[in-house]
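Consortium newsletter contribution from the modelling node. Members have asked for a concrete example of what our holo predictions look like. Here is one, prepared for the NAP complex that several groups have been discussing at recent meetings.
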Amino acid sequence: MNSKEMNKENNVIAITGASSGIGEATALLLAKPQVKLALIARRVDKLKALAAQVELLGAEALVIEMDVVDRKQVEKGFETIFSKWGQIDVLINNAGIMPVSYMDKLKVDEWDRMIDVNLKGLLYCIASVLPHMKQQGSGHIVNISSVAGRKVWPGFAVYNATKFGVTALSEAMRMELTPTMNIKVTVVEPGAVATELTHTITDQDVLDSFAKRGGGMVPLESVDIAKAIEYAISQPDHVNVAEVLVMPRTQM
Ligand SMILES: NC(=O)c1ccc[n+]([C@@H]2O[C@H](COP(=O)([O-])OP(=O)(O)OC[C@H]3O[C@@H](n4cnc5c(N)ncnc54)[C@H](OP(=O)(O)O)[C@@H]3O)[C@@H](O)[C@H]2O)c1
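And here is the predicted structure:
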């Protein structure tokens, strides 16, 4: 790793949604001596097990129990990180859910929840790090969007809306923050990755449509996205990786 932030002695990286999937794989890939990893999610048992693995790899770890929907919990969690390590160099804004459904099922509670976690939760985390990054004169915010932030499918309408939102937000953030404040912004857009993300889907018709459509498609592994994140945060000072779309070779 050779960027300014990755060379700092105090290399503090906060990862939301670190208890499984892409967030967990990213923590394991980035774990090495001199790296300090704040591992953030609701399932503390999983975070504690991950922290033990991360420490075996030579990094320091801090477990933060946080529901990103709860603004007070978000503020408190990031304050805990700042009071322990004094800074956050990289925020990997990864927590997300995907209880997709057809619109006429009117699963309004699930629509609310996707907007709350994927958009509002991501914004609360940004609000917690931005003043500090501005003050320290450097930082990097990596927002995890999706190919669903570029393409729409029936059944994905509200998830699409949240991820189109994350992609749009990221580019506007980059324009506001990167050239003048030295806060880099990257949006990472994974195609299908084999994780727990589909476990919250309750619409059987959507699940049946996946079964029909997915034949022969080999999904990405979480580490494939972790490598894209590592690439984005390892660039020299003058480079900002604005957007990375990573698709399974066999996904349309
Ligand atoms: N898998 C894919 O195919 C795919 C494709 C494109 C984009 N993505 C995006 O990648 C990101 C990571 O997803 P994943 O695939 O790795 O799925 P995952 O294994 O289900 O991970 C989701 C993570 O988000 C956390 N999370 C969910 N709700 C939260 C909340 N309210 N507060 C705090 N943390 C919360 C979960 O932790 P707790 O449950 O412990 O809180 C978990 O660590 C998401 O933003 C997703 O939209 C995934």
